[in-house]
Amino acid sequence: MSRNLTQLELLIELEPTVERELNRHLATAKSWHPHEYVPWSEGRNFAAMGGADWEPDQSRLSEVAKAAMVVNLLTEDNLPSYHREIAENFSRDGAWGSWVGRWTAEENRHGIAMRDYLVVTRGVDPVALEHARMVHMTKGADTPATWDDTNVLYGLAYVTFQELATRVSHRNTGRVCDDAIADKMLQRIAADENLHMVFYRNMCGAALDLSPDQALEAISMIVRKFQMPGVGMPDFRRKAALIAKHGIYDPRQHLDDVLLPVMRKWNIFERNDFGARGERFRAELAAFLEKLEREAARFEERRDRILMAEAARRLAAETGDSGRN
């Protein structure tokens, strides 16, 4: 198809796929309840109700786990902004609207479970967490200025990658918490994120079949401009660097576990239905992925050197302590 479809044409043409994917999702998704993943017996009052306020030594989480949990939770907290963006880019009518409502309700469970867990176990400072939530939600999340009026394609492409990235981050965060309850909770949340990713990935795949060049243009732009939805939260850069340093979500995972599997599923580099415009976007995308490969390799080399130096310093300190004893 040589011309770009309008927003309305895309919504109408894709609606049967939305209905089919929604029905598949409802048949696959498992019901669960946030309260079942919180160790309520560990909870106690804070000072406002005669107890004691949070102190750092009350947390069982490492600094890495705390950073990852806060980033993951604040990302979920900004759900109203995501709901607004998706509802505006898609539709609030018919199968589109039913999906947006269902997705929002399922995502809301994630924030409920994570916040209750962190407050009950005193995993992080609840006052600092609330301050960060207020700042992040007040700022909200906006569509990048580079998106054009066919936002449905940009939205489908972005959320496909974002949901998969979030799944990876939640799953790896569970592993570093060193707590069976947190790990189980984040496994459950990650399973939801995977189902959401499958919905959006299949929708974007249908868009590729419907209007290949137009869809690939959106995919190429999203891949090249991709940022995690939590980028605007307080202290994000420091937390993201810590998370990457310890393998929770890093450039290699972004490339190998998020971008490339989705590209393979869509057969981006094997399909033969692109026109001249699509071929240009495909070449652009291939060059960008090669650049990411080089950047990921450099990051891994730099991280390995840093971690080895830190391990050597710890060993030297321990040996010195042993010698004095």
Please characterize this protein's 3D structure:
- The chain has 325 residues and is mostly helical.
- It is 73% helix and 0% strand.
- It is globular, with a radius of gyration of 22 Å.
- The relative contact order is 0.12.
- The model has no long low-confidence stretch (mean pLDDT 90).
List keywords for this structure.
single chain; 325 residues; mainly alpha; 73% helix; 0% strand; globular
Topology:
Layout (H helix, E strand, L loop, with lengths): L6 H22 L34 H15 L1 H11 L4 H28 L4 H14 L11 H26 L3 H31 L1 H14 L10 H10 L5 H16 L9 H49 L1
Helix pairs in contact: 1-4, 1-7, 2-4, 2-6, 2-9, 3-4, 4-7, 6-7, 6-8, 6-10, 7-8, 8-11
Shape: globular
The rounded Rg comes to: 22 Å
Number of strands: 0
Tell me about the largest β-sheet.
Answer: none
The mean pLDDT is 90
Run of helices and strands = HHHHHHHHHHH
Give the uncertain stretches in residue-range form: none
Report the end-to-end length measured between terminal Cα atoms. 77 Å
Strand content: under 5%
Structural class of the helix and strand makeup?
A: mainly alpha
Estimate percent helicity: over 70%
Count of DSSP H/I helices: 11
